[in-house]
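2024-03-11 09:14:02 INFO receiving multi-entity request
2024-03-11 09:14:02 INFO entity count = four
2024-03-11 09:14:03 INFO echoing inputs for audit
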Amino acid sequence: MAKTQITIIDIARELNISPSTVSRALRNHPDISRKTVEIVKECAERLSYKPNEMALNLRLGRNNIIGVIVPEIVHYFFSSIVQGIEETASAEGFNVMLFRSEESYEKELKITESLINARVAGVLASLSKETDRYEHYQQILDNDIKLVFYDRICIGIITDRVVVDDYAGALSAVEHLISTGCRRIAFYSSPLHLEISKNRRNGYLDALRKNSIPVDESLIFVCDTREKAMELTPQVLSLPEPPDSFFAINDHTATGILYAVKKAGLRVPEDISICGFSGGDLALACDPMLTTVEQHGYEVGKTAAKLLIDKIKGITHGQYTNRIIKTKLMVRGTTKTAP
Amino acid sequence: MAKTQITIIDIARELNISPSTVSRALRNHPDISRKTVEIVKECAERLSYKPNEMALNLRLGRNNIIGVIVPEIVHYFFSSIVQGIEETASAEGFNVMLFRSEESYEKELKITESLINARVAGVLASLSKETDRYEHYQQILDNDIKLVFYDRICIGIITDRVVVDDYAGALSAVEHLISTGCRRIAFYSSPLHLEISKNRRNGYLDALRKNSIPVDESLIFVCDTREKAMELTPQVLSLPEPPDSFFAINDHTATGILYAVKKAGLRVPEDISICGFSGGDLALACDPMLTTVEQHGYEVGKTAAKLLIDKIKGITHGQYTNRIIKTKLMVRGTTKTAP
DNA sequence: TTGTAAGCGTTATCAC
DNA sequence: GTGATAACGCTTACAA
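2024-03-11 09:21:47 INFO inference complete, emitting structure
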């Protein structure tokens, strides 16, 4: 057990040279002779010297930490994003500090403060559902910390952004339903103030319009969890003019719909078609397997991290990029095959 | 945009007092007069001063970072653990630095080195499947960094440990199957060198023995993914003496079994019972919903983080705790109700 | 090629 | 109560 940590000074003393020479040797400074470098490195190894990053960071006025703000951790889409971020970050020599906002503005505020105090190099953020003020993100920029938004972006702040193509995803999903003969397509949405709701709703609406299907507002509901879907769907099915299909804002909701539809004695997809939005294993566990829009969270994470790191490195100084990650419709068993 | 960061010295200059007074006032040192404290805090607020944690860490020779090593991120059990860790850590004023070992020993080695260089306060680790040497963890301890293992623990190193009660979970699952009339219970396991395989296998075997059911080795298979289960199960079902039930090492595998069984025209649970191990939403998406053993990853994370933080704070100096998190059998639709 | 010394922002120690 | 000073471990002009 090392009583006290080994420093550059210990190595210097051991070898009767100066600390600066040790520092330079360890960093492969060109001025230092091959021999000194060797001796120093051997000694560092022997004493199992570990450079103190805290000192280095203070000295250099920077560190290699990327702060990641994520609304939820136990969540297929977000954990895929975190995985993409971690992979890119570690490949580029950055460490990931993870924070969960828990969909709370207050938490988000505390997190951004921690991030500023820690003087992280950059921040990757997705807004909590509650957040409708953005000063705390402006503060991040004011403190010279790079910032990239992903998925739940913030329009008011000028930064790079990475989003999923919600509009196109919804459009393709609903067009698929239409192409298989569906005409009365119910839409289960998240609360309407969220960008994803707006974009997917627009995709839904445009798909109907493009196919000359009248929009029936009474088929649009705010319902975005499995539980709510299990409760709401029986009522929807017993409407005078019930839907022939459902488009759900996420796969959890879709599984709730599926459950309720089967429980009502209807066949899927013969009587009722269902399409979700998310991707992941949940869709495969369903019976029939769920048709859904895959969001490619991993790509979102990788792209956002790359954008941020380029900003940190100064490669993309002054440029602001909006990146859109394509979705992919995964056609499975809860929708019919086109006639 | 703040050209340069505000320091304690800026505040001192602004108020014509010394930096040490400012420091003490901000920290509510008892020696400082109420008035000075007020003035200093007002000024700090006005200049939007943010304490530089890098300087503080260097000065104090410590930081508030907990390093977390996790084999996989997109994984219900592990992401639940991370959520428990993050929650506990942030409540106690610690930040979480997340690393994914990707089940690789090499990666794990690099991660522990980063962790030591960063002088993190503590580490929470779960071994990669590859790892069979432990010097890198001993190094962590040698560098005076606290260490707690969770789930995939390491026996060779003396530290706190938090594990799931795999044995009892398997025992209760198999006893449940037996109590509902099952006699020929197939076991789909992970590779046998893993602790979880051994423990759950022992639970499986003991449940049979306790109920005087002969063990049939030909009903034990290495099969731990959905894909493999979909491939293997039809063969198992067409055995001369096929099983009447399946106990799977995880829920993904169980969903594969369920798929294959239904495809073979058998009814679940009337003809075949299925029980998984994991918990989470996947089990609910199945039809019928999957009976499974809930592992309480969130609890594992919370417990491990608490143990680590107590160690860091010196509350539990010199003690080493082994904590076992209880599992819970969630009886659902893929098993029969007891007669 | 190597050494000296200053300084990153903070706090602990010792004076006053 | 408050101020001066040193120190945490490292890098980097500037000197030699």
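2024-03-11 09:21:48 INFO post-check: Chain A has a mean pLDDT of 95.
2024-03-11 09:21:48 INFO post-check: The longest helix of chain A spans residues 76-91.
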